[in-house]
Structure formats: structure tokens, C-alpha cells
Design goal:
This protein is of the alpha+beta class. It folds into 4 domains: about 20-25 and about 35-55, no CATH class; about 60-280, Thrombin, subunit H, CATH 2.40.10; about 290-375, Pdz3 Domain; about 390-480, Pdz3 Domain. It is built from 12 helices and 26 strands. It has helices at about 1-25, 35-55, 60-70, 90-95, 125, 265-280, 295-300, 320-325, 340-350, 405-410, 425-430, 450-455, and strands at about 70-80, 100-110, 120, 130-135, 140-145, 145-150, 155-160, 180-185, 195-205, 220, 235, 240-250, 260-265, 290, 310-315, 330-335, 335-340, 355-365, 365-375, 390-395, 400, 415-420, 435-440, 445, 465-470, 475-480. The strands form 4 sheets. It has a 7-stranded antiparallel beta sheet with strand order 5-4-1-2-3-7-6. A hairpin with a 4-residue loop joins strand 6 and strand 7. Helix 1 (about 1-25) packs antiparallel against helix 2 (about 35-55). The longest helix has 25 residues, at about 1-25. Mean pLDDT is about 85; it is low at about 1-15, about 15-40 and about 50-55.
Length: about 475
């Protein structure tokens, strides 16, 4: 009788769990479901019922893979490379074929984020591309247009003309925990629809791989296998939600070596929204240069922990100066969120737009203080940043970008813009080539595309250009109108 009672109890318990799950799944207001949302609910129900049948300790990746694999695309690019200078010896023996323009093909991955064809990828996947083709998991191909791109975060937004596409929903990378399982979906080595799994190894990693003075690096580190072609693919949690865009590996050989890195979706989502709405990222700046906090800093500035971001300098007339922040203040919180490193502070600030207000908590002489701050844009005000003001933009056929730190060090200059793309226009007509650095227009120093536009005004008003060729030699052109 005792055993019969136990069997009946377990049967009733199982039936109760199933009934509870069914009730929660179907507990929805009537008449409010669209076709898309009902499909999502069915899939959520499948995931819940699957989890109920799993034994303790088991992890099921099939649901997440199924939700993601159809929304990750293969991005293929073509570009033309023209050698800056021919080799006269090679040309003497082999002709001029070594100095002719040649076509270069590239490939990577992308993630569909809406059913009408918006696709996220890495900026480095499509940078310099003259033609971008997207191949879906169902083998359909489309020509993609660039909506916008942001070298500071290595994010680009593409658009294809299609509807009813499968897409990945945003998750929350803030909620990721160390040791949590994640999946990476992409196209390594041109192998489409590849899924790998790993755990979150670390958060807030700064690899110093982006070449920009305004770069934001706060990578999610995982041990999911990534290789060439995975760039721009999806990092998802076990619910199939997008938590990052796979971007980089650290490897002595160039192939997977145990560490891979993704851009957190909290950064990605903000960049994508800005590119769709404004065509340029609305980046908030607090007006400080920051450094890691060391053990010596902790002792010198009376810190309880070796954590935070130390202000190495304050930008004149910036938000921080106006709020009273000073050199060597240690920022430990931003808008209530703890700050353990400069990369974490950058990630928190990157979620805001110019004009937003936030509270900064800092330590000075061992005393913790919280103050409000109003963030500004790259121009030092709170206006909307238009294409060109953010450092990059297209002016008369030339795509111009502000110089990164590597080019500044390489050519020993602290200003200028680099020609990263060149199409028909006045610059091409006057002999400017891709890779050239423009230092001044009409005698005025230039630091971004907006400066070039302002210095030139009308394209017929071009009187002089000075700059540096790709091989490091100075050029100076003067024109008579």
C-alpha cells in the first residue's frame, strides 16, 4: 500500500507540473496575438516543455541553435585594390600586370535583426567593399546596402530588400554570468550555418585592437570556437537570444586557440538604433582620458579595492570639467552601476546620447562623492551628430575618416583625415588616392570629414590640398580656379 501511495503521489505531481506549464504557456489575453508573436510563444512553449523533460545538469542547445541558424547570413564582399606604386624591376621582367588593379574577395557573417532585412555585421567585414552580397540559410542571395558603420565599435548595419525573414531577438548581455553557456553561429572558412558552443570566460575585455581614439572595447570572452569567417556572426544564450556579435580571436596562428571575443549586445543595440535613425552614432562623451587602476594607485589614492577608472587628464570645456572632476579622481560608479575598469566605464557611457544626464561616483583623497553630469558630443555640445561630425563621412566622392592612433604615430601627426574609399568626384579628379592622408584644405587644418566639407564649401572653391601619401611622402597641390 505504501508503494502504491508513492506511485500515485508521483503521478499526481507529474500531472500537476505539466498542467502548471501548460497553464503558464497559454495564459495570454485573448485577441491580442499577432502571427509573429504566436509563433514565438509556440517556440517558447517548446523550450519550456523540453526543459521540463531534461534531467538535472543537462544543457539542451537544440532550441537556441534552431532559433539562430536561419537568421545568420553569409556576407561576401568584393573590392578593387590598386597598388600605390609599381615595382619597376618586376614590371621590366614580367610586364605591368603586378601594378594593375586586382579584385579582392572577402567573407564573413551577419545577423538578421528584423523581418524586413536589417542585418548586423562587423565593420571590418565590409570595410572598403565595393560590392556586398548576402546569402541566406535558404540559399537565396541579395545585394546589400550599407545603412551605416561605426569603426569605433566595429559595427556595421546592412539592409537587403526582403520581407518575412527569420530574425534573432535581442537578449541582455548585462545578465550574462561567468560560466554560462553560449552558442556562436557563423560561417567559418566559408562553411555556412556552423554552430559552436562554449562558456562565458570573462566580460569587459579590452584587447586594444580597434584603431580609433574614440574606440569602445568591452568584449565578452568565450571559449566557443571561432575562425576566419565567423566575424559578424551571432553569440546567443541558451534561449536563442542575441547577446553579442562575434568579432575577434586571439591566436598566434590565426586559427582558433581557445579564446574568442564578442561585442556585447548592449553596445550593439545602441549603435544600430543610432545608425538607423541618424546615419551616425550619437556618441556621448564625458570629456576625460582614463587609465587602469593599479595597486600603487589604490595605496596612493586611499582605495579599498584595486578597481575603477583613474582620470589621467580632463578635456578642457568638456562635461567632466564642468561637473568638477579632476585628474586622478577614481571613477567607481556610473549611473549606479559599479565600474571595475576603463572598458566597463566606456561600455556604460556608450549606451547614452549627447544631452543625457547621469550620476558619476568618484573617489578623491579617500572620500566617495556622487555628482550629476550632462554628456556632450564630439563637437562639444549636445546637438544631434550628423554624418561627418562623428569623424567619418563622404565628401565629394571620398570616404574620409579621422586618423586613428596608429596612423598618428606612424606619420608623426596629431590631426588629419584618411581617404578610405574613393569614387568619382573632385578628389579623384585631382589625383588623390585611397590611403592618402589629408592634413589641410585651402590652408585650414582638418580633423574630420565635417572640417573638410567646411574648408572646401563648394567643390569649385578648392584651392589647395596638403597631406601625406601612403608611402609617407608629403604632397602639396595648388589649383587655379
Amino acid at each position: 500500500m505504501k508503494y502504491l501511495f508513492g506511485s500515485l503521489f508521483m503521478a499526481f505531481l507529474g500531472a500537476g507540473i505539466a498542467l502548471f506549464a501548460y497553464t503558464k504557456i497559454n495564459e495570454r489575453p485573448s485577441g491580442t496575438l499577432s502571427k509573429d508573436s504566436s509563433q514565438v510563444q509556440v517556440r517558447d512553449a517548446e523550450a519550456l516543455l523540453t526543459s521540463l523533460t531534461m534531467q538535472d545538469g543537462q544543457i539542451d542547445f537544440t532550441y537556441a541553435a534552431e532559433q539562430t541558424v536561419h537568421a545568420v547570413v553569409h556576407v561576401r564582399t568584393k573590392s578593387t585594390v590598386t597598388p600605390q606604386a609599381g615595382n619597376p624591376i618586376w614590371e621590366y621582367f614580367y610586364g605591368d600586370r603586378y601594378s594593375r588593379p586586382r579584385e579582392v574577395k572577402g567573407y564573413g557573417s551577419g545577423v538578421i535583426i528584423s523581418d524586413d532585412g536589417y542585418i548586423i555585421t562587423n565593420n571590418h567585414v565590409i570595410e572598403d567593399a565595393e560590392n556586398i552580397e548576402v546569402k541566406l540559410n535558404d540559399n537565396r542571395t541579395f545585394t546589400a546596402e550599407i545603412v551605416g558603420r561605426d569603426p569605433n565599435t566595429d559595427i556595421a548595419l546592412l539592409k537587403i530588400k526582403a520581407n518575412g525573414l527569420p530574425f534573432v531577438k535581442y537578449g541582455d548581455s548585462d545578465q550574462l554570468k561567468l560560466g554560462e553557456w553560449v552558442l556562436a553561429v557563423g560561417n567559418p572558412f566559408n562553411l555556412t550555418s556552423t554552430v559552436t558552443a562554449g562558456i562565458v570566460s570573462a566580460k569587459g575585455r579590452n584587447l586594444d585592437i580597434l584603431d580609433s581614439d574614440l574606440k569602445i572595447e568591452s568584449f565578452i570572452q568565450t571559449d566557443a570556437a571561432l575562425n576566419m569567417g565567423n566575424s559578424g556572426g551571432a553569440l546567443v544564450n541558451t534561449k536563442g537570444q542575441l547577446v553579442g556579435i562575434t568579432s575577434a580571436i586571439v591566436s598566434p596562428s590565426g586559427a582558433y586557440a581557445g579564446n574568442s571575443f564578442a561585442i556585447p549586445v548592449t553596445i550593439v543595440k545602441k549603435v544600430v538604433e543610432d545608425l538607423k535613425q541618424f546615419g551616425e552614432v550619437q556618441r556621448a562623451i564625458i570629456g576625460v582620458n582614463i587609465m587602469e587602476v593599479t595597486q600603487e594607485d589604490a595605496e596612493k589614492y586611499k582605495l579599498n579595492e584595486v578597481r575603477g577608472a583613474r582620470i589621467s587628464s580632463v578635456i578642457p570645456d568638456g562635461s567632466a570639467e564642468g561637473a568638477g572632476l579632476k585628474e586622478n579622481d577614481i571613477i567607481v560608479k556610473f549611473d549606479g552601476m559599479a565600474v571595475a575598469s576603463p572598458s566597463e566605464l566606456q561600455e556604460q557611457v556608450s549606451r547614452h546620447r549627447p544631452g543625457d544626464r547621469a550620476n558619476i561616483t568618484y573617489i578623491r583623497n579617500g572620500k566617495e562623492t556622487t555628482i550629476p553630469i550632462t554628456m556632450k558630443n564630439v563637437a562639444g555640445n549636445t546637438n544631434v551628430v550628423t554624418p561627418g561630425m562623428g569623424g567619418s563621412g563622404t565628401v565629394y566622392g571620398a570616404r574620409l575618416e579621422s586618423l586613428g592612433s596608429s596612423d598618428k604615430n606612424k606619420f608623426d601627426v596629431d590631426y588629419g583625415v584618411k581617404v578610405t574609399e574613393l569614387n568619382d568626384g573632385v578628389f579623384k579628379d585631382y589625383g588623390i588616392k585611397k590611403g592618402y592622408i589629408i592634413l589641410s584644405i585651402n590652408g585650414k587644418k582638418v580633423r574630420n570629414a565635417s572640417d573638410v566639407q567646411n574648408a572646401m564649401g563648394d567643390q569649385d572653391n578648392l584651392k589647395s590640398i596638403e597631406g601625406i601619401q601612403s608611402n609617407g611622402t608629403i604632397f602639396s597641390y595648388s589649383f587655379r580656379n
